[in-house]
Amino acid sequence: MAALEALINAPEFTVSELSSALKRTVEDAYGHVRVRGEISGFRGPHSSGHCYFALKDESAKIEAVIWKGVHSRMRFKPQEGLEVIATGKLTTYPGSSKYQIVIEAIEPAGVGALMALMEERKKKLAAEGLFDEARKQLLPWLPEVIGVVTSPTGAVIRDILHRLEDRFPRRVLVWPVKVQGEGSAEQVAAAIRGFNALPAGGRIPRPDLLIVARGGGSLEDLWSFNEEIVVRAAAESMIPLISAVGHETDITLIDFAADKRAPTPTAAAEMAVPVRSELFVEVTAMARRAMLCWQRAQEGRRSELRAAARALPAAGELLAIPRQRLDGASASLPRALKANTHLHFRHFAGVSARLTVRVLRGQLTQARHRLTVSGERMTHSARTLLRNRRDRFSGLEIRLKASKLANAQAQRNAIARDRERVARLAERARRALATATQRLQARVAHSGQLLGALSYRSVLARGFALVRDEQGRAVRAAAGVGPGARLDLEFSDGRVAATADADRPAAKGPAKPASDEPKPAAPKRTAKPVDQGSLF
């Protein structure tokens, strides 16, 4: 009873709550794991781009998923039956109550898996015919330009250049690429296709021979040259290609697709060009042999000519038989001419016997009858044709009249519409002109009012005066006016000339004792009114 009560008192979970709790537990306990197993149930990427399969071993299986973005960045793609080491995050899928691993990286489990993958890929590409001998091209005997696809910093390019310099110097174009690691396969394939895309006679010369080279290394290091993109680029190359990847014991798939395989990069350089010094010796020997052969041939022909000259008969003996045949033909020619003339005469007599007046009259009657029948048929045809043409022209005339009426009515309608439109536009233009004129008049009036308000003449009208000197310049201060200066005073109703008596009051002298004598009156001075100030 106590156990039953304990179960009854246990908290209740919904299915979603329980699934979420299990999901958090699994993800917290197994954040990132590495799992080794065999790929099972892989049928290629889903239509969405995601991959769904399982990893299994002898006694267990776990579901796996690779998202689309991760799959596109993977160097090794999953394949059915391949043993791999997968790195990812363990999680659950509530929709089917199962746990699964979301894979972030995948790699083959050891060299054996790589060899199996390589063999499977080799069979697939061989089935497509990429390794057929019929596709192989012959290497040029002495290429002018050699294209090399390799790393620019390794010892491979130095060995190739040094070997070419020793044997037969040629122009070399190097396409620098990565030969190991992420993106190296794409760079090698792009370099092969790039050399093939160069136009003949362009600024950059098109190579006559390609060398794809890399030094030795492990199977993982050389794996870029086993990728399909590299093998297909080598098979599609229209330029003869030598594969020089690794050492003599290293085998990659590009070796089968290339036109020639070299055990080492140095051997590839030896295959590309002959030895120049040996060529000089061989050419000299061949020239000597050719001269000896020519001399012997000339001596043999000279001997044959002498023997043939001795064996030839005389000219009279050669012409005796043709001369005899000519004499016989000239003797039988008169008789043949007579016989031919008699034969033709008999043939002419037989033909003239059959050609009588009755026959000629019958032929003339038949010809006259045919001519009459032909004339009647021609007259009937001409009348029929004329009737058809007359009917056709009548129909065309009716259509033309109808078209003219319709066109004239359409033109009248168009002219009426254009007249109405011109009237509307003229009315709008008249209203717009009146509105613009009113606006301009208002603007001119406003500007006149503003000009009158800002003009100094309105200030003069209020009782002020404008003072100018003899040069007509405005006087702005009393200090600028000397004694006896001629001034011009401008009022609102006219101008008045004036003369300045003094520019400033007399200076005060020393104090004198007071006296009862009256002080002399100060001279009168014409001064500016107190309320008359300067406008400036």
TrEMBL record:
Source organism phylogeny: Bacteria, Pseudomonadati, Pseudomonadota, Alphaproteobacteria, Hyphomicrobiales
UniProt-listed CDD domains: ExoVII_LU_OBF (cd04489)
Annotated region (Disordered), positions in chain: 498-536
Protein name as it appears in the record: Exodeoxyribonuclease 7 large subunit
Subunit architecture: Heterooligomer composed of large and small subunits.
PANTHER family assigned to the protein according to its UniProt record, in alphabetical order: EXODEOXYRIBONUCLEASE 7 LARGE SUBUNIT
Record function comment: Bidirectionally degrades single-stranded DNA into large acid-insoluble oligonucleotides, which are then degraded further into small acid-soluble oligonucleotides.
Gene name as annotated: xseA
Ranges where the OB-fold nucleic acid binding domain occurs: 13-107
